[in-house]
Amino acid sequence: QVQLVESGGGSVRAGGSLRLSCAVSGYTYSRYCMGWFRQSPGKQREGVAIIDGDGLTPLADSVKGRFTISKDNAKNTLYLQMNGLKPEDTAMYYCAAANRPQLFCGLGAAEYAYWGQGTQVTVSS
User: Fold this and answer.
1) Residue 88: enclosing H or E segment and its boundaries?
2) Residue 121 CA to chain centroid, in angstroms?
3) Cα–Cα distance measured from residue 97 to residue 116, given in angstroms and rounded to the nearest whole number
4) 118: three-class secondary structure by DSSP
5) Between vectors from CA 21 to CA 41 and to CA 28, what angle results, nearest 5°?
6) Digit-coded pLDDT (tens) for 73-121
7) CA 95 – CA 97 distance, rounded (Å)
8) What sign does the CA torsion over 122, 16, 61, 33 have?
9) DSSP characters for 28-47?
10) Tens digit of pLDDT for each residue in 40-66?
């Protein structure tokens, strides 16, 4: 079974940083799309950052310049480095992985088959 387990969330003041990790097991499609999404109460799930098999990393406009996604294939771990956090970044953050090849890796949740349980990020002013 494919499992994705997020960690690294927590509470931080505005302007602070957090690094989220996603440990992946039972997944061998290292070149497929993987990424981070977030969802806050009353809002739709939003794609935050994606990484494809070639290392390209499309980011949501709201986090561009502040967040960085990376992947360590040897450790089967996906990361999201979040700097310059803002209160509007408060959400449950999920990692996700596709189960099929795609020409492009986008920020749409429907492109991803496997999901973690989420880790909460809270940013106070």
Assistant:
1) none
2) 12
3) 9
4) coil
5) 110
6) 889 999 999 999 999 999 999 999 999 888 888 999 999 999 999 999 9
7) 7
8) negative
9) --TTS-EEEEEE-TTS--EE
10) 999 999 999 999 888 889 999 999 999
